[in-house]
Amino acid sequence: MKPLAIAAYTVTNALGRGVAAALTALRRGESGLRPCDFEDAALSTWIGRVAGLEEAPLAGEFAPFDCRNNRLARLGLEQDRFGAAVRAARERHGADRIGVFIGTSTSGIGATEHAYRQRDPATGRLPDHFDYQHTHNLFSAADFTRRWLALSGVALAVSTACSSSAKAFASAYRHLRAGFCDAAVVGGVDSLCLTTLYGFNALELASSQRCRPWDADRDGLNLGEAAGFALLEWAEPDDARPLLLGYGESSDAHHMSAAHPEGAGAALAMQQALARAELRPEQVDYINLHGTATPSNDAAEDRAVLRIFGPDTPCSSTKGWTGHTLGAAGITEAVFVWLCLEHGLIPGTLNTRRIDPNLGAGVVLDNREQPLRVALSNSFGFGGTNCSLLFGRRVA
Amino acid sequence: MNTLQVEGVGLMAPGLAGWPNGRAVLAGERPYAAEPMPAASAALLPANERRRTTATVKLALHVTQEAALQADIDPGILPTVLASSGGDSEVVDRICAALTLPERPVSPTHFHHSVHNTPAGYWSIATRCTAASLSLSAYDDSFAAGLMEAAALAWTDRTRVLLVAYDLPPPFPLSERRVIVAPFAVALVLNPAPTERRLATLRLARRADRPASRLDDPQLETLRLGNPAARSLPLLRAIARSTASRVTVSTGASGWLELEIEP
User: Fold this and answer.
1) Which residues sit opposite A17 in a β-bridge?
2) Which of B202-212 are b and which e, b meaning 16 or more Cβ less than 10 Å from the residue's Cβ?
């Protein structure tokens, strides 16, 4: 496929605001995870919470959008001069020719959780201040992003659980190919909420420790929250920016909340990404795994990676830094991959000490400094929805 | 490359149960009457999954199955695009209600049914389809967004695509803040290549400023405005009438999607 260039990018998560905070934490091996202190959640787990959202309400024309998720989106959009990059793109392409493709799994459902706790005891009605359209509805995250950036092109929210913001790249590529837009803002925003904290707890998938992907003693995930955005345009022939080289999407056709045990759908997504990029497995220098640290998901992904890449391709999960940011995981890990391509870094797998002897992929435990040209990022979700993205740099 | 052939239609709404019935009403052969909908069968789902699943999943799968059958294609190979404004609000209601109780007893089944792509997951399980599936929302403009995504996917990968749009009225108390007047689900099998099976050819173009197409029957117009999936009605009417026509669907702030329809 014709590559897309990443013209600008930014990420905000438990490691801090903007890419510099993320890169510093990745290099130093400093996790953003902490014992759960979200609202009044009484759960014995660790979370990757973004500091300061509680004190940063949206005001003025954006007041109707005020909820944790859109506060996080705003905070993310304010970093790394992302708004200035989009303004420049608006001059080049026109506001109605830049599409907005935002992945989210729960959007601002936290606003509805709060409203239900404030129901009128006599009538059961929700409080007057509750604004479903601008907070909870999935499109709210995309609508807010579009309005904040003063864009008027196509806009949609992709919501395919934990592959959401990875699949936003595929949707953006297709819209560019179809001529529906000339550039795209892709991203993902997912914030902590009681639905996911208590939901994963009910599924017995949340760990009471720091998550340990691929570790023999791994026992579940930690939830995190994040906002990440990127501006995509068609690449120039000798483009020095990071490039989207390929994407692959598949469905497991297996189970609503369990991955295919052999990782069949995951393998299909990775194979399609390679085919679209016209690359062979041995040309991939690093794989950022989905790597949630649940026993079955890591096992399924391990089989899929082994089948296609064998045991030698370096791979790691960065969930130990951020927790699993669900619908924002795809963009978060894409940004990590671009930082790694730019700075020649293979991150280790934080918190993991003893790799499960039943797993065989080339999981790296400690950070390595080495030049990278091509890297793959995996995102897999509930309902068996899989997406793999291939990124690369042209090295002179 | 800006055309799509419609090869199959699935439809379910009050008074529009199934495409043969809905087609006759929309073609003007019979007057519209908002009769209660028959139960969605979602017969493709294994019995135990069907028992556990929700009205939203059943409705989405029911029309998808009808469209695939009508196009006489193996649904197990087609990529799908699912467009829904709010997804499964019944599940959201149950989870948010559970979160108000001591101990917050969120049901694990409700939780894994809370993702927007639940119908896509069940469709893939039922048909053994491993092709890509994208679930999206664009609030009231979800149908137009889904149609553009489906078109872009069909053209990019040169493949048939199954587009499904659906929304159901939310339960109280959400119903007071998100008014959806009746359930509505539509599915279209779209082929970017010429085909003998076609019911209509669509030509898509984004326009800056056009009025959205309306329906002359006041009850159908209320339905069109009252459910994001029912924004498809002017297109369905054009297909039903088998005459060349032009239809405009809002895409929100980004303007309008103009569809030229040829029989």
Assistant:
1) A12
2) bebebeeebeb
Contacts of A130 in chain B (CB under 8 A): 177
Write the residue in A177, A202, A255 that is nearest to B156 by C-beta: A177
- Tokens 């679209």, located at residue: A276
Quote ipTM for the complex: 0.97
Q: Is A290 a catalytic site residue?
A: yes
CA-based nearest residue in chain A for residue B96? A113
In order, the DSSP letters of A322-381 are H-B-GGGHHHHHHHHHHHHHHHTEE---TT--SB-TT--S-B--S-EE---SEEEEEEEE
Cis peptide before B119 (omega within 30 of 0): no
Q: How confident is the model at residue B49 (pLDDT cuts 50, 70, 90)?
A: confident
Active site residue A134: no
* pLDDT bucket at B48, cuts 50 / 70 / 90: confident
Q: Which two tokens stand for residue A111?
A: 């606003």
Q: Which residues of A touch B111 (CB under 8 A)?
A: 195, 198-200, 202-203
Q: Which residue has the higher pLDDT, B44 or A37?
A: A37
Cβ neighbour number for residue B46 with a 10 Å cutoff: 10
Helices (H), chain B: 19-26, 47-52, 55-71, 89-98, 108-112, 118-127, 142-157, 218-226, 233-241
Whether B119 and B181 have beta carbons less than 8 Å apart is answered as no
pTM of the model: 0.98
Question: What part of A 121-140 touches B (C-beta under 8 Å)?
Answer: 124-126, 130-133, 136-139
The pLDDT averaged over each successive group of 10 residues in chain A (396 residues) is 97 98 98 97 97 96 98 98 98 96 98 98 97 98 98 96 98 97 98 98 97 98 98 96 98 89 96 97 98 97 98 98 98 98 98 98 97 97 96 77
Q: Smallest Cβ distance to B111: which of A131, A137, A199?
A: A199
Q: Are B169 and B181 in contact (CB under 8 A)?
A: yes
Name every chain B residue with its beta carbon within 8 A of the beta carbon of A113.
96, 99
